[in-house]
Amino acid sequence: MKLSKFLILIALISTYTGFSQTNKKDSTAVFILNKMSAVINDLESVTFNLSHSEDVLDADNNIVKKYSTSELSLSGPDKLLIKSQTEDGNLGFWYDGEFITFYNYDENNYVTLEAPETTIEMIDDMHEDFNFQFPAADFFYPAFTQDFMEQFDTIKFLGRKIIDGETCYHIMANNATLNVQLFISSKTYLLPKHFVIIYKNKSNIQYQSTFSNWSLNPIIPNAAFDFLPPPTANLISILKKS
Asked: Which among 188, 190, 172 is positioned nearest to 180, based on CA atoms?
């Protein structure tokens, strides 16, 4: 569908919803989320960058911001590569459909584990067993919109906003403990640009990420997802969370 026709549909739907404060699941917002999710699920491969900021509480219960950046590459249903620069160090994560490897560049140590057959299954298992957090993983779940609608009591379309010079559709969702705001690029492919998570039950601390440098369906060699230990790197063990 051409973008002009899509914008006409947005306008028509908006006319009927009227952005009503009593409309708990705004059809305009759901339409945009469905389009975004469909584009992402149709991708055979993708690379993009993320910049993050995260609020943490210090020993005196003050909110302190921590910053990090990540480069992500995904290919097919079973390939993932993440390289992150954080305040705690430089980290890498490789998944090739059989094994997952976590590598600490600063300490020159790594751990390799057997993995499920798909990226989604691997992410679920790693979160459940080790509490690993994968940046922006939710956007790549096939049932993203359905899960989003089930998790939140209200979902609203708040119009267009400018993020880093790019016009985006602004969507806000709320439940008892979370306020989530998504900014979806209004360009042809409707890719996520920015999101904010506010934890209402944790002093309103926030987690934010901004997407950039999207490359859709690039050719990524399978070898890029295979981890080769650097010289003198130490193999370590890892314990499941209790």
From this structure: 172
DSSP code for 65: E
- Domain residues for the domain of 96 are 3-235
pTM over 0.90: no
Residues in CB range of 73: below 8 A, 6 or more apart = 45, 46, 47, 79, 80, 81, 82, 220, 224, 225
pLDDT digits (tens, 9 = 90+) for 10-44: 444 444 444 444 458 999 999 999 999 999 999 99
Q: Count Cβ atoms within 10 A of the Cβ of residue 76 and give its class: 0-12 exposed, 13-18 middle, 19 or more buried.
A: middle
Residue 204 · residue 180 · CB < 8 Å = no
For tokens 């439940």, what's the residue?
175
| Domain contains 215 | yes
Can you read off the two tokens belonging to residue 237? 């063990």
The radius of gyration computed from the CA coordinates of the chain, to the nearest angstrom, equals 19
Within a domain: residue 67?
A: yes
Question: Is the Cβ–Cβ distance between 20 and 132 less than 8 Å?
Answer: no
- H-helix or E-strand spanning residue 178: strand 178-185
- Per-residue pLDDT tens for 93-137? 999 999 999 999 999 999 999 999 999 999 999 988 888 888 889
* CATH number of the domain bearing residue 195: 2.50.20.10
Look at residues 98, 97, 95, 65 and name the one whose alpha carbon lies nearest to residue 83: 95
How far apart are the C-alpha atoms of 201 and 197, rounded to whole Å? 12
Number of folded domains in the chain? 1
Q: Strand 45-57 relative to strand 205-216: parallel, antiparallel, unpaired?
A: antiparallel
Closest CA to 42 of 183, 190, 187: 190
